[in-house]
Design brief:
395 residues; alpha/beta; 7-stranded mixed beta sheet; 14 helices; 12 strands; 13% strand; globular
C-alpha cells in the first residue's frame, strides 16, 4: 500500500543531514558543555554553532537565542516569564482566541496569579485585526502574545502591523512562530516583535528542542531555575545532540526555503481547490491565500474528523483532525469555534499538512481515496440522512 | 596521551546499546506519539516501553512516571508544582542547605510568591539529620525536598528515615535522586517518599530527558501548560528518541547495577585513600563510607580547584571542581560552605567521578600525574609560602 504522510503539522520527519549532524553528539562528543575541560569544549562549540544557525534563520543575533526543550516550553517561558518580569508595571495580558494551548493555558495560569487576560477575537478566516489589539491595550498591559501562524488552519497573522502598535506603546510583544519559523521567511527585526518561539520538529529537525528569541534588553523571569546555563535564563544540562540538530535544520531551512515553498504551494493549492469539488459539502478553513505553504485544512459536513482520519489511515494516509497536542481530548477545536464555525461542522475538521517529502502523486492518491471514504461515512451519518431528506422534501 | 574521563557527575557518556535503541526514532519512526494514526503508534508504543523500564528501575508503577526534559526540569516541576498545588493548606517549605540549585533556586522563586522556606543544615560530612527536619515541620508545611545523594560530595542522605517523619505528618516529600537513581538501588515504595527526580545523562542515557516519579494521588501543578501529554501534567511534543534512550539506560542500569557498583567502589576507595597520602594537605569531602560508588571528592589546601582542573586537562584527565551547572560562576560551593569548610579550603575543591568505562590503570595514571601538578601549583601559591614560613618559623 502507498504510504502518504500528510501530518507535518504534528511533527516533521528528521532530515538525513540533520541526523548525521547529531550522531557524533550521541557518541564520542558527549561532554557537558558547562564543563571546563576539553570534553566540554566540543559540546560547547557545537552548541554555539547551532546558536548562530538558528539566529541566522530569523535575522537575530546569536546571544539573543535561548535554547529550550520544545515549542511548548518556549511559549510557557515567554508568556509567564515576560509577564512575571514586568508585573510591577501591571497585570494585564492580551492574547488571541486562537493561540496554541501552550500560550492560552499559560495565560490561564497567569490568571490564577492575579493577572487579567483579554482575548482578541478573530474573523472567519482566523485573522486577528490589529485594531482589536489596539483597543485592548491599557496602561497596565505588560504583554501581548499573538501567534505568527496558526497550526490548525494555516492562517498567517499580521504580526508586523500589531508590532507597530505595541512598540509605540512599549508593550512587550511575543509571537508564537512554532508553526511558521523554518517554513516561510521570518525576520525578527523586520517584524518588530520582542520575543519569538520556534521548535525543531516543525522544520525537519529533532523533537525535544526549541528556542526562544528574546530581543536584547528585554527582561524575563526563568521558568527553569538552577544552574547558569543559557546566561542564567534556562537551567539544565543542555540537550547537545538535539540543539545541534536544530541548528542544522535551521541552516537547511534557510538555504532551501524558497525551493520548498515553490514545491509545496501548488500541491496545497490543488488540495484546497479539488478536495471540496470532489467530496462535496466541504468548507476550506483558514485564509484562502494568506496561509502556510503546505497547509490544507477543511471541515467536512455531516461526519466526524476522527472517523475520516481512521479510514484514511487504513489506506496508508496520515492526517489529523486538529492539533496533535489535544488530539486525544476529542473536543471541537477552540480555533474553529473562535472563527465562528458551528460545533457540528467543527467536528468534521481535517488537516492535510504537506512536507518536503510529498509528491504530486501523493496528492493524486488522496484525491482518489478520500471521496469514497467520505461517501461511506455519510451513508452511516444520521445528520446526512436528515439533510438529504430535507433537501428531497424541499424539492 | 592517555585520556581519562573522571567527570561522570557532570554527564556520563551514552552507552552504545542506548544509542542503538534511539537511532530508529531519529529515522523511520518519527510520528508524534499524540497522533491517532499508524505513524503515531510506533512512537507511542516505544514511549510506553520506556515508561515501564524507568518504573522498574525504581520500583514504581508505569503510570506514575512523568517524562521531563532534564533533572533540572523534574526538580523545578516537583518543588514549584507540589508547593503550588498544596498552597491552600499553607505556604511553608523545607529544603536542605546542600540541595542542587534547581531545588534551591526553585524554593527561592517560591519565596517570591509568598512562601516561607526553611533550610535544614548538614553536618561536616554533608549529612542531613532527620531530627533537624522534624523540628522544622509546621502545620502549614506543604513540602519537604531533600536530595537522595549529593553530586558534589557523594554523600547519601537518610531519605527513608526522613520519609518516616514526613509521612506521619502527611507532608509531601520530594527527593532529588538525579545523582543517585541508576547508580545504586532506589525503591520508591521502600523509601516512602512521594516524588522523586531522575535524569538520563547520569546513568549512561541521553541528555535532554529526565523523569519525575509522582506517587498516585499526589496533586501537582504543571510547570509546562498546553497539550494533554503525560496525562495533562507536562505539555509539549514528547522527545521520543531521548525517552527511548532513558528507558534503555534504565533497563541496563537495573541489570548491571550490582556489577557496576562492585567495579567502581574499589577504584573510588583507592582514590579516597591514596590521593591524600600522595598529595598531602588534602581533605576528603563528603561521607567517608556512605557515598556514591564512583564518587571521590577532595579539597586540596593552598590552591584553586580550577587551576588543578586545567593542568589535569592538559594531561588528558577530565575532572571538575564542583557542579557543572555552576562551573562558570567560579564561586565557592554552597555545599562545602554548608558543611563548615572555610572559604579558602572550599576553593581547592576537586571532584573525580568514576564511570563504568574507567579502569584501575586510569586510577594509577591520576595518582601519578596529580602530585607533581599540585606541587607545581603550590610553588606559585602565596598561601602555601605563608604556610611553610609559619611552619618553619614554628620549628
Amino acid at each position: 500500500m502507498r504510504e502518504v504522510y500528510l501530518d507535518n503539522a504534528a511533527t516533521t520527519p528528521l532530515l538525513p543531514e540533520v541526523r548525521e549532524a547529531m550522531i557524533p553528539y550521541l557518541g564520542d562528543v558527549f561532554g557537558n558543555p558547562s564543563s571546563l575541560h576539553d570534553w566540554g569544549d566540543g559540546s560547547r562549540e557545537a552548541m554555539e554553532t547551532a546558536r548562530d544557525q538558528v539566529a541566522q534563520l530569523i535575522g537575530a543575533d546569536s546571544d539573543e537565542i535561548i535554547f529550550t526543550g520544545s515549542g511548548t516550553e518556549s511559549n510557557n517561558f515567554a508568556v509567564k516569564g515576560l509577564a512575571l518580569a514586568q508585573q510591577s508595571k501591571g497585570k494585564h495580558v492580551v492574547v488571541s482566541a486562537i493561540e496554541h494551548f501552550s500560550v492560552l493555558h499559560s495565560a490561564k495560569t497567569l490568571g490564577k496569579w492575579g493577572f487579567e487576560v483579554d482575548e482578541v477575537p478573530v474573523d472567519k478566516y482566523g485573522v486577528v485585526d490589529p485594531e482589536e489589539v489596539r483597543k485592548r491595550l491599557r496602561k497596565d498591559t505588560v504583554l501581548v502574545s499573538i501567534m505568527h501562524a496558526n497550526g490548525e488552519v494555516g492562517t498567517i497573522e499580521p504580526i508586523k502591523e500589531i508590532a507597530g502598535i505595541t512598540s509605540k506603546l512599549k508593550v512587550p510583544f511575543h509571537t508564537d512562530a512554532v508553526a511558521k519559523a523554518g517554513t516561510i521567511p521570518v525576520d525578527v527585526r523586520e517584524l518588530g516583535v520582542d520575543a519569538l518561539s520556534l521548535a525543531g520538529n516543525q522544520f525537519y529537525g529533532p523533537k525535544g528542542v526549541g528556542a526562544l528569541w528574546l530581543r536584547k534588553g528585554v527582561r524575563i523571569m526563568p521558568l527553569l531555575d538552577g544552574g547558569i546555563q543559557e546566561g542564567g535564563r534556562r537551567a539544565g544540562t543542555e540537550n547537545v545532540p538535539a540543539i545541534v540538530g536544530l541548528g542544522k535544520a535551521a541552516e537547511l531551512a534557510k538555504t532551501d526555503m524558497e525551493s520548498r515553498v515553490k514545491r509545496l504551494t501548488p500541491l496545497r493549492d490543488r488540495l484546497l481547490k479539488e478536495l471540496p469539488r470532489k467530496v462535496g459539502h466541504v468548507v476550506v478553513t483558514g485564509h484562502p491565500q494568506n496561509r502556510l505553504p503546505g497547509h490544507a485544512s477543511f471541515c467536512v459536513e455531516f461526519i466526524e474528523g476522527e472517523a475520516m482520519l481512521m479510514l484514511l489511515n487504513s489506506k496508508g494516509i496520515a492526517v489529523s483532525s486538529g492539533s496533535a497536542c489535544t488530539s486525544r481530548a476529542l473536543k471541537a477545536s477552540h480555533v474553529l469555534i473562535a472563527m465562528g464555525l458551528p460545533h457540528e461542522l467543527a467536528q468534521g475538521s481535517i488537516l492535510l499538512t504537506l512536507g518536503i517529502g510529498n509528491t504530486p502523486e501523493d496528492v493524486d492518491y488522496v484525491l482518489e481515496v478520500m471521496p469514497p471514504i467520505v461517501d461511506r461515512l455519510r451513508q452511516m451519518s444520521p445528520l446526512y440522512a436528515k439533510f438529504t431528506k430535507t433537501v428531497k422534501g424541499g424539492k
